[in-house]
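We emphasize that the prediction below concerns an isolated chain of 249 residues; any contacts that depend on oligomerization or on bound cofactors are therefore not represented. The input was used exactly as deposited, without trimming of termini.
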Amino acid sequence: MEKEPAKHATKRALWSWRPAFSPPIRFRYLGQRQKQYLDQERRQLKEKKRVELLTQKESLEFLEGIEDKKKYRFEEILSATNNFSDENFISKDATGKVYKGKSFTVRRLDCTYGQGEEMYIEISTLKRLCHENISSISGYCNENNERIIIYTGEFRTLDQHLSDPNLKWAQRIKICLSVAHALHYIHHDHDVIHCDINSSKIFLDKDWKPKIYGFELSIEYPQSWMRRLHSSRYFDTNKLKCDVYSFGV
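Result of the prediction step, given as a token string:
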């Protein structure tokens, strides 16, 4: 007996299902699918509005939080950094570059990374912190699609001087102790984890006094979570760098 061609077998199989899809059932099925589609559209629209409202709220909170900070014009930043020249360049990381300005330090964020939200996180975090070993912000610039943070004081970064013979052991120990005090402050007084502690995120002034900056990756946990973090071994360093572990490294 010859084997039935595949296309005829397919048609016969579909024909056998025909009774199950009589017109009333078929219309009911289509109506259910249409209802599911409309419900999904409503949920997506509702979520979109929620995100927009949350973004507007965060923007208002951000503006309220920096209203006492000076808003620099982009031309002022260009003049202070000599058009972001190599002579004024200090350091670079994944989120941007740091430059020396006139009586202040400039951090030019890369807007392609996170679409500029790092400036909001950095400023909103630092405005709540007050410690002699944590940097402070004097102003910002958000013109011409730029996201620039202005830190009070002229600095260089610790990673530039790790091999500097002028940095004596006594000064190195003092820097370590100062950074440890700053970490203790943000962990226990504000429940903040920096998440990116390294030598490039530590400013040094002319007297080798350290100041932590770069809180754009920081997270905040309730005290109950902090106890778990401190009692854990390394808090899964593949997902989140524990500040204490990173500080030790």
